[in-house]
Amino acid sequence: MKKDLYLMRHGQTLFNKLHKIQGASDSPLTNKGILDAQKVGQYFQKQHLTFDHAYSSTQERASDTLELVTKQSYERVKGLKEWNFGVFEGESESLNPPHAAGQISYGDFFLDFDGESATQVQQRMVRTLQQIMQVDNTQQVLAVSHGGACFMFLLNWLDYAQVKQYLPLPNCCVLHFTFENNKFTFLEMLNVAH
Predict the structure, then answer these.
(1) Which one, of 76, 94, 113, lies nearest residue 21 by Cα?
(2) Phi first, then psi: what are they for 79, rounded to 5°?
(3) Are strands 75-77 and 3-9 parallel, antiparallel or unpaired?
(4) Coil, helix or strand for 167?
């Protein structure tokens, strides 16, 4: 039986606004981030979209976003956390490395700086969301995560030529997937906050 996953990126944060690298570190939602998350919640209400279960990353910007979208109870899950960028955390985004020839992500770059590789983030997200969708009495799920983590998850199911039309993934965008036989099928990106 097909199930639905609505995978959302958190609202705009202070670090997003200041163009700072924000992975394992955290910063608060801006007023825009708050208003955008509320718009998504209003959209879900107008569409009569309800969720059997809701989950967020353990990072505050994700849980704060979820609490603005819905008042239902939810579970915080470490596997939904953002890519850890190691010693680059909190630094200017201008320090992000250029992609190596033929690469579509940062690959293993951050491993040498106490961070995660692209593959580690992707495998963590896929494993976590598969486990979430296999929970009993689950038909429709909302999960709030992060830009880099959502990008790597999306790349597991689509090729880069398909993914790049959605980049950069905007704050508060919602990626809608179906889930069947342990596989996700991407349907659409909802960008109702913008």
Answers:
(1) 94
(2) -65, -15
(3) unpaired
(4) coil
144 pairs with which residues across the strands? 8, 56
| CA–CA distance, 124 with 136 (Å, rounded to integer) | 21
Question: Residue 186 sits in a domain of what CATH number?
Answer: 3.40.50.1240
Mean pLDDT of all residues in 11-40 = 97
Nearest alpha carbon to residue 15 among 95, 87, 97, 90: 90
Q: Determine the residue type at 61.
A: R
Residue-wise pLDDT for 75-125, tens only, equals 999 999 999 999 999 999 999 998 877 788 999 999 999 999 999 999 999
Backbone conformation region of residue 114, classed left if phi is above 0, alpha if psi is from -120 to 50, else beta: left
Segments forming the whole domain that contains residue 129: 3-190
Determine the Cα angle at 96 with ends 92 and 100, to 5°.
170
pTM: predicted TM-score of the whole model, two decimal places: 0.97
Amino acid 34 reads I
Question: For residue 179, is pLDDT > 90?
Answer: yes
Q: Total structural domains in the chain?
A: 1
